[in-house]
Fold these 3 entries.
Entry 1:
Amino acid sequence: MRAIVVSEPGGPENLRHEEVADPVAGPGEVLIEVAATAVNRADVMQRMGHYPPPPGASPYLGLECSGTVLALGEGVDGQAGAVAVGDQVCALLTGGGYAERVAVPVGQLLPIPDGVPLTDAAALPEVVCTVWSNVFMLAGLQPGQTLLVHGGSSGIGTMAIQLARQVGARVAVTAGTAAKLERCRELGAQILIDYREQDFVEQLREATDGAGADVILDNIGAKYLGRNVQALAVGGRLVIIGLQGGRKAELDIGALLGKRAAVLATSLRSRPVAEKATIVAAVREHVWPLIAAGSVVPVIHARLPLAQAGEAHRLLESSEHVGKILLTLP
């Protein structure tokens, strides 16, 4: 098969479309013929040499895909209610999506939601599982509470806005342009903050009569740590899922104690297979009906052929996109 290979850590020009060995479905896995995959920040970090795949994972980039089941591994027998050869699915991956085929544990598969084209379904698994596991399963966002999403126009941001609004929460977002903020508003965000021109702590306090955010979903990390704590409501939960703004920062524990707040940091990729299966099952139960009904939609900025993975990475790193960038296969 052909896959995107990182010739050496570095820029997008180091992504090569090459012939590699076919994967094999191991026990409890299925083999998927990939129709599309999606570009995520984790792929960029891995390309640069900063985010190696976990032991035993595929060496290739790609944390989600959609496609058709080609083969079943031992223990996946296609009984009633289970997956079968020929089924169209999308999947949460530990790696390997930038390829013509990928093996994945059966518990990380999801059916293609009604009304979503096979290719576009590749935009769903990673962002939906990330948002649902962090905002709802971990942080426990409730109706009437306020969620602050940093990077509201990203793939994760556009999904977080929609899901939070579906449960009756109020959504605040940060983004860097008026056009991005307008797209966030169209998706349901009610508090729009231009982080280039406005201080998000002040804007959030003003919009919430001083209360702050009950949950903050943060992909920045160190750069925003202190101000995120300031922006939390009493009993608030800060969930850190990215390090775009650095790894190390000073934390005012007194401020945290004063608000009886929590700082939580999570990673989806490195979780055990059983934990991922639990998250995927929850997503299928709670989110897939919303997508099938058209209440929640994948937001897709661009679709490029797999061979143009380098250009897709350049687009992601430019931060000019809104939503997901897909890589498609013939």
Entry 2:
Amino acid sequence: MALFTDGDVSGIEDLRGYDTQLLDVANIEGIDVTRKLKLAQDEIAAEVAVMLAGASPTVDPGRIVVTTPLKLWHVFLALELVYRDAYRSQLNDRYAGKRDEFHLMVKWAHEKIIQTGLGIVNDPIVRATPPHVELCSGSLPDGTYYVAAAWTDVAGAEGMTSIPATIDVAGSSFAVRMGATPANAAGWHVYAGVAPHSLFQQNSAPLTPGQTWTQPDTITAGGKAAGFGQAHDYLLPVPRMIQRG
């Protein structure tokens, strides 16, 4: 699971899974869905900060992982914000119904957080930034390749895979290197493939920070797929708070 601080908790496609008319409504009413996703995450971050304020010992927000209830909280809140704006624009009862429906789902997801707690990792591994990829000598089949990477810690736990970089290969291969190394990173993995959502680990053992990976003349197209980060080490109980509405 990704860390809450790794970036976007959910995307537009996650929202469309719960509302297939989302993009049509956003287009008609001139609503920036990406902005609503950011606002929803900011609101949740503020509420999570209050939850953590009562924890003993203190827990850094950077140790929170995105569990299923936390992701659903974000999805439903973003959808509520979209339909709140849509209703204010047109005072359309259909929009009001959607707004109220998603508001109830926000409360449901929040209740699941109260029941289960926040997922916490002991040693958070930040999401890697896209690796540096450049052409080098080799005989990899010509084509476009997508290359991502992920940091690992001393215990072998792996952070969320980076956004992939893209490189066009013709009569060559490619080399991969990482940028600045996080303090707790002990190694890293390379993931590559011919499609951005179908990436597989290319190295057999963790690479050391500072090491450059040179892709052989084949691409591993099976085995371990690019992942979504760490599982939580424990669930932190959180206090019940009065929700708006």
Entry 3:
Amino acid sequence: MTDQAHNLVLTGFMGTGKSTIGRLVAARLARPFVDMDEVIVQRAGWTIPEIFASAGEEAFRQLEGEVCRDLARQQELVIATGGGALIDPENRQAMTGSGLVICLMATPAAIVDRLRGISDRPLLHAPDPASRIRELLVARAAAYEALPHQLDTTTLSPEAAAEAVLALWYQQQCT
């Protein structure tokens, strides 16, 4: 049985709905919502693109790991991780140890559509962002698939996806 004090963590690739769905779920559970990317920006004093440009992806990933471990020590949060946060095994272990982790998924076409016109994603600064998305999805597939709870948001509205997340949360409370 999942302890009610545990966190509910949404992870998955960018554009799958982690932040949007996380806010809806947090409101329904009357819990604080934490967007890891926002915490990273607050701590660094730079935007994520500025962190990548000034310090590099490795420095960003180190800060991301610190935030993962800090949040995993807290309770009763709804957390939206960054898309690559739980690729790192230590981060994944910290978050799975803190509560229920649900990996949100979507088709590459849906992700491309959802991210169209968004310019603050440093990993998509490429001549062909759609190809870059497919490349990153393939590279991260094993880590995402290793998580026991998956939810495909491709055809779901944010409200329907939030309901599915809540159903899984309540199901875990009873097992």
